From TrEMBL:
EC number: 2.3.3.21
Similarity annotation: Belongs to the alpha-IPM synthase/homocitrate synthase family.
GO MF annotation, one: (R)-citramalate synthase activity
BP-aspect Gene Ontology terms: isoleucine biosynthetic process
Organism per entry: Marinobacter profundi
Keywords carried by this UniProt record: Transferase
The Pyruvate carboxyltransferase domain, residue ranges: 11-276
Protein's name in the database: Citramalate synthase
Length: 539
């Protein structure tokens, strides 16, 4: 494995998490969410952060007011807006006027570069669209340090009517655009097509600066971005975790390490130390978006360096390079080896060592492997249930009764959230004195409790009593109380428990969790596990 930072060319990173990312179904940024993400991107070392569209919604309007007063350490802020609308003018289009009335260094305008879109979307003559683009860009040229033109649907346009698409690019360059960003707006292109198109524009406009904006509808956005860079694009646009309209945008969490580690491109701020902030960045942005990072997401997902197959684990323990393409710490991740029905003796022996067992006889090891496979065939899943696995191992090695302790639980309203509807809930479970399970949830209390209960069920409990946990739901009552159901039996109605929490919101959360603890104790009484809770509520 080679950590290869060798090329001298700088690639400019343009993040559109807060603009194209905000176009994702289910994602809604508040003002403080946007400010938090801007700080994270700035610390990480993104060159340009597209913050939103002034005037398009209240949050963005307030955001640009706030941004006008701030300075960032590394990044420059871009505002996004369309060219003025055909029936209006630079002076009379209120959307264009508001969109460009911002105190930021970079202005990005998007315009049509596909004749079909001009005819069908704008319903105007092709020449008029070119005039609108030129005039809108010239207006911005006089007001901003950097002006970027996003040529929407450029690749579709180049295929359909190359003369027209290239004429749009020429007009944008002549009007003073610093970068022409070629957009695969419908996200259907493949790397070979992007490479060829890049060659065409580079030959036609030598010396011009191009960028690439890719969508992931054919699952090729990252590959297309790499092809664009290889073809001469100096700027790449994308989002954290690949969010964005429809199937999303180029995932910067994959693209950045590919550019740095695989292709040897340099990015102004992305040193090896900064690259090691990639996974924390991805997780933190996810947390702000209240969406989990997809587990199998390359580089940053939970499973990116998780080994499950017995054969893989046996080799990785000899040399990680046998089944890893880079070292996890380069992107701020860690290696994980999990035990399951896919394990052999090596994986389980490794687990035993980690638990402090110095030796284990071959016959015992074999018995453990067989028992794990037997239980797995009944629906137990140990790869997500480390503590359950450890309880089983202790039992089988004659050390029953080692306690499982709920050590710490706190529920704190998140500072700086204007709605004050969000809580940060922290939960730590200790087993045999060391913390084995820790989770943070930053959510509305109802959602947070659901997540917490489901996580507990999935990871710590359900494996021992698979049929018994049927459903958990939490509901906010109009009285301000929370009501929780924990359905314990095969027949959901017969053993469900209803608990109503009272008091302050944080205390309500704790009341519900306490009720869950009660359910847990009842469900586990046959196993005689002890559960002690110390709860702290700092609300
Ligand atoms: C490729 C991309 O991802 S572009 C992303 C664009 N982002 C968004 O749309 C999110 C934010 N948008 C909004 O909040 C609203 O759409 C606004 C405030 C921008 C505009 O709202 P409205 O004025 O009510 O217009 P509406 O959204 O209904 O329609 C968009 C208008 O822009 C026009 N338009 C679209 N592209 C362009 C362009 N490149 N140049 C000029 N006008 C354009 C459309 O033709 C349409 O006008 P029409 O109905 O007269 O044909
Ligand atoms: C500009 C943009 O978001 C697109 O063309 O997809």
């Amino acid at each position: 494995m080679n950590n290869n930072y060798s090329r001298t060319q700088f690639i400019e990173l343009y993040d559109t998490t807060l603009r194209d990312g905000a176009q994702t179904k289910g994602i809604h940024f508040s003002l403080s969410d946007k400010l938090t993400i801007i700080d994270l991107l700035d610390d990480f070392g993104i060159d340009i952060i597209e913050a939103g569209w002034n005037g398009a919604n209240v949050t963005d309007t307030n955001l640009f007011k706030e941004l006008g007063r701030r300075t960032l350490g590394n990044s420059r802020i871009a505002a996004f807006c369309s060219t003025f609308r055909p029936a209006l003018s630079v002076d009379s289009d209120p959307v264009f006027r508001a969109g460009t009335a911002v105190n930021v260094p970079v202005m990005t305008l998007f315009g049509k570069s596909w004749d079909f879109q001009v005819r069908e979307g704008l319903k105007i003559p092709l020449e008029q669209n070119i005039a609108i683009i030129a005039e809108s860009l010239a207006y911005c040229r006089r007001r901003f340090d950097t002006v970027i033109f996003d040529a929407e649907h450029f690749f579709d346009g180049l295929e359909a009517n190359p003369d027209y698409s290239l004429a749009v690019v020429e007009a944008a360059l002549n009007a003073g655009a610093d970068r022409i960003v070629l957009c695969d707006t419908n996200g259907g292109k493949l790397p070979g097509q992007i490479r060829q198109a890049m060659e065409t524009v580079r030959n036609r406009f030598p010396g011009a600066n191009f960028g690439f904006h890719g969508h992931n509808d054919a699952d090729t956005a990252v590959a297309n971005s790499l092809a664009a860079v290889d073809g001469g694009a100096l700027q790449v646009q994308g989002t954290i975790n690949g969010i964005g309209e429809r199937c999303g945008n180029t995932n910067l969490c994959s693209l950045i390490p590919n550019l740095a580690l695989k292709c040897g491109y340099q990015m102004k701020f992305i040193t090896p130390n900064r690259l090691a902030l990639l996974r924390p960045l991805s997780c933190r942005v996810s947390e702000v978006m209240r969406l989990p990072v997809t587990e199998n997401q390359p580089y940053v997902g939970d499973n990116a360096f998780t080994h499950k197959a017995g054969v893989h684990i046996a080799s990785v323990l000899k040399h990680p390079g046998c089944y890893e393409h880079i070292e996890p710490q380069w992107v701020g991740h860690r290696r994980e080896l999990v035990v399951s029905e896919q394990s052999g003796r090596v994986a389980i022996s490794h687990k035993l060592k980690g638990m402090g067992y110095k030796t284990c006889e071959e016959a015992t090891l074999k018995r453990l492997v067989e028992e794990i496979k037997r239980l797995s065939s009944q629906g137990y899943a140990f790869d997500r249930a480390e503590i359950s696995l450890e309880l089983l191992i202790h039992d089988m090695l004659g050390e029953q009764g080692k306690g499982l302790t709920l050590e710490h639980l706190s529920c704190v309203p998140l500072a700086g959230i204007e709605s004050s509807q969000l809580f940060r809930i922290e939960l730590a479970l200790c087993f045999a004195g060391s913390v084995r399970f820790r989770r943070h949830f930053s959510e509305h209390p109802v959602a947070a409790i659901q997540s917490m209960l489901l996580a507990l069920m999935r990871e710590e409990w359900a494996e021992f009593e698979p049929p018994r946990i049927q459903q958990v739901s939490v509901e906010a009552l109009s009285s301000g109380h929370l009501r929780a159901w924990v359905a314990l039996g095969a027949d959901k109605s017969s053993q469900s428990m209803v608990v109503t929490g009272a008091g302050e919101r944080a205390a309500q959360c704790l009341a519900v969790v306490e009720s869950y603890r009660w359910a847990w104790l009842n469900a586990r009484q046959n196993r005689q596990q002890s559960l002690h809770a110390t709860m702290a509520c700092s609300a």
